[in-house]
Amino acid sequence: MTEDSKEVRITYETLYEILRREKSTDELQKLDSSFCTDVISYLRDKTKILADAAGKFDVFSVNERDSTQVQMNNIKRILKELYEKRERKIIDMALNKSRTNSSIIDTANLLDIERPIYNELIKTLDNFRKEILHAMLELRMQEQESKMEQARIDNTADAKQAKVDQAEADASLQSDIQEAVHASIQANTQANTQAATQGEAQTESKPTVKKIKFIQKVEQFIGPELDTCGPFEPEQTQELPAEIADILLEKGSAIEVK
Length: 258
Fold this sequence. Notes:
The structure is a single chain. Helices cover 63% and strands 7% of the residues. By secondary structure, it is mostly helical. The protein folds into two domains: 3-137, Methane Monooxygenase Hydroxylase, Chain G, domain 1, CATH 1.20.58.1030; 155-256, Ribosomal Protein L9, domain 1, CATH 3.40.5. The protein has a three-stranded antiparallel β-sheet. The chain has a two-stranded antiparallel sheet with strand order 2-3.
């Protein structure tokens, strides 16, 4: 738009003509620096017309309101299409700048509000070009791959160590349980032998039991009566001889159920 047209900066017809010119060429078209504020002012005027006509029901007011509403809808469609057309051109300009680093790309027709978009696009494209393309060309991608491979090895090693630690913990628990069972059997045998020596009747004393709930898996083991116990799963409850239950409680494998 020229200085001669400053009196009426924006109309429906001028917007339509601006869009037509933008669509007809690959180059970004020149717009007045005040284009955005002029458009906002124009839309406010149209909105005021709609508001003034809202409470009137004479034929003239109704026709004006309907005509203005249709025009407002068309204006918004034109502005959306104009923005997206210029957006595509700005993206192409930034892409060319990033690829060629040319100083002859003409940015004179960028609006002040559009220039940050152009600059940020170039910055983003340049950063990724450096990190990906230049890295490959300079064989530095191998360093990144090496770091990723080392991370994978470390994760695998951690997983293996966790399995080893769990296996050792399970073995230690089994050993403690079997020691307790062995001690219980020995104590019962010794008591019965002593009673027999003294001529007393051998009586079976009922073992003390505790009810526990398992909070982790416990493998199968042999109980004091030489019976098979387990395996036990988390959340499973079971009554076990007190000496075995105490070991499971101490190891954190179960909790007591009162």
